[in-house]
Amino acid sequence: MEDEVFEHVVSAFGTLVSWVAAGAIMFGGVVPYIPQYRDIRQTQKAEGFSTYVCLVLLVANILRILFRFGRYYEMPLLWQSIIMIGTMLVMLNLCTNVRMATDLSTKRRSFLATDSKDEEVRIPKRLFLDFDWTYFWSWSRFMDYVQCVLAFTLMAAYITYLLLDSALFVETLGFLAVFTEAMLGTPQLYCNYQNKSTEGMR
């Protein structure tokens, strides 16, 4: 009787540990971006955070999801990718809104300084569908980032569908997902180098 109770307790504890571990896997990756989000929202300054970090994580996690069609991996890792994609889109939305508000405020101050009060303050719009590589990933609207992500996802999904039977392609897809994520720090490092500061980065 005691052995059965002990086994039941051990089994319940093992299940609890598994659930906690799965939760840590799914949500652990987004935790560092919570203080970053709060900092940008409170200060209304996004210059210290590189949105290319979002690009890297979006690409890496989209490729990882597509990799699962060729090589099965556990469900918590799939949910981790889905949650990370959602988090990066939320970060992009905030950064885009803050950047546009800052540009508008700067433009208004410039107009006031030159006594151009009667003129309408306008900020040139940079759109994804303009296909201007000069402004890649520096667009004026959040919807342009969504369009870019959807275009990349559809293109990558179609290529994966065509080459899914190739073991070489599937392994290459997995490698690209891991390698892209491994380069996560590079955009932020370059941003810090350009700013000559780490201010605004959590």
UniProtKB/TrEMBL annotation:
* Bilayer-crossing regions: 12-34, 46-67, 79-100, 145-164
Main subcellular location: membrane
Q: What lineage is on file?
A: Eukaryota, Metazoa, Chordata, Craniata, Vertebrata
Compartments reported by the entry: Membrane
The membrane topology of this protein is: Multi-pass membrane protein
Question: What InterPro entries does its record include?
Answer: PQ-loop_rpt, SLC66/Scramblase_ANY1
Q: What is this protein called?
A: Solute carrier family 66 member 2
Q: Which UniProt keywords apply?
A: Membrane, Repeat, Transmembrane, Transmembrane helix
Highest rank taxon of the organism = Eukaryota
- Organism, per UniProt? Characodon lateralis
